[in-house]
Amino acid sequence: RMYLSRFVPDKPFEFVFGDAFNDFSVPYHLTTLEFHHLLKSRMSVDGVYALNIIDDARYGQFLSPMVRTLQTVWKNVYVAPGTVEIAPGRNTIVLIATDKDIDLTAWEQVISPAAKGAQMSLEERTRLTRLIPSTAVKAFLIGHPVPALTDAYAPTDRYLAPVFSDA
Questions:
Q1: Which residues, in sequence order, are bridge partners of residue 79?
Q2: How many CA atoms lie within 13 A of 155 on its CB side?
Q3: Among residues 50, 99, 46, 90, which one has the least CA distance to residue 71?
Q4: Whole-model pTM?
Q5: Distance between CA 72 and CA 77 in Å, rounded?
Q6: How does pLDDT run across 10-66, given as a tens digit for each residue?
């Protein structure tokens, strides 16, 4: 965040991947509305921000506010839980935020070089890259009414406590 606040790129970022979270340490200052507004200000109009988080759908207290926070800043937020649905149990979930619409049919047909190199089966690749329909994401958010995160309110440790206590 400090780097972004000081650095103005010569040309805006097209893609940013956030991978700063791990099992027991979430830098809360990278989860807030203020951070995401700053990040978006350094990105191109069609830029894509992807980040991975850990949560358990039984609780959803981190996934829910992260989606709400991203939805406040970007037009589209997609959820890729690595399974066919947002499933109970501790999972790594990828969130994708962008103002451009992702063609879900085209998304499912693209095979990344990493997937080709790993010789993934179609079933495994589909499971790992599937984006949850927006209706399922909305239903999840209704069932997990946790507010967006701000610099003044980002209790990430408390939200993740039930996930860690189950570990």
A1: 95
A2: 7
A3: 99
A4: 0.90
A5: 10
A6: 899 999 999 887 666 789 999 999 999 999 999 999 999 999 998 988 898 999 999
Cβ–Cβ < 8 Å for 60, 144: yes
Tokens 């970007």: give the residue.
74
3-state helix, strand, coil in the chain (%, to 5): 40, 25, 35
In the predicted model, what is the mean pLDDT of residues 103-108?
83
How many beta carbons lie within 10 A of that of residue 34, not counting itself? 17
- Cα(81)–Cα(20) distance, integer angstroms: 18
Contact, 146 vs 154, CB < 8 A?
A: no
Structure tokens given for 29 = 């200052």
Mean pLDDT for the chain overall: 89
The whole-angstrom separation of Cα 146 and Cα 69 is 10
Contact 78, 131 (CB under 8 A): yes
Q: What is the pLDDT of residue 26?
A: 85
